Amino acid sequence: MDAAARLADSIARTEGLFLVVTGAGVSLASGIPTFRGTDPGAVWKRDVTELGTVRYFFEDPAGSWTWYLARFEKVLAARPNPAHFALAALEAWQAARGRDFLLVTQNIDTLHEASGSKALVKVHGSADRVRCSSEGCRLGAPSGSIPRSAVDLAKFLADPRRESVPRCPECGEFLRQHVLWFDEIYMGHRDYQWRRVLRAADEAELVLFVGTSMAVGVTEQVLSCALERGVPVFCVDPGGAPVSGTALLREPAEMLLPAVCERLGAALTS
Hints:
Elements: H1 3-13, E1 18-22, H2 54-59, H3 61-77, H4 82-96, E2 101-105, H5 111-114, E3 120-122, E4 125-132, E5 146-147, H6 154-158, E6 175-179, H7 194-203, E7 206-210, H8 217-229, E8 233-236, E9 247-249, H9 253-264
Parallel strand pairs: 1-2, 1-7, 2-3, 7-8, 8-9
Antiparallel strand pairs: 4-5, 4-6
Helix pairs in contact: 1-9, 4-9, 7-8
């Protein structure tokens, strides 16, 4: 049985929650470099992880904003690829049969929602939003944020220094990216929906990892729960290393997932 048939058969036989966890690899075909991946454009081949920290932001808010604006220009200009549309189709297929589905993405791009995914948790935040750096502010943690499009960046772009860093319209403190930094925790903001992720990890009857290196907290949590409960686990990653207790499907997600949809009769919207 080929990879698409194996995965389609497992999905068809799953009556309970189908949990999908995606990483940067699912967006690679949309032109967004991975982080820990092996592709030539992988972000961590060029940048040190300490740039994505609270510590660095308060040390150099202008430097933090400059680094993120350079990255987000490509992220926010990207368009969904067939893997994104296939995951949205699988969600609709599940819903039509009265079955539960949840997509947890580590990605901060907006490609899953642009392709139609609705049962979605963006556990690392979102590139299209910013928030106040003051936790005491209504527009900061633990629950506040505003659209990036509502922030006038012209002054900072013309003169990128500390004095021109965008300010919170509510309290006047620096605005920051609405993303989970490396020295922060998942419970730091309600938008990350960490409790919902934990519940899903405990309830899932089928787990599918797509394009993730399995090297962050959310993947470790979901995987350990699945293996402890004997839940089937598939990993879609052309260059990934085998993980004990899982089925590794070495095919590009943008090719494999549409093939799975075809076998199930799940209609893609694009």
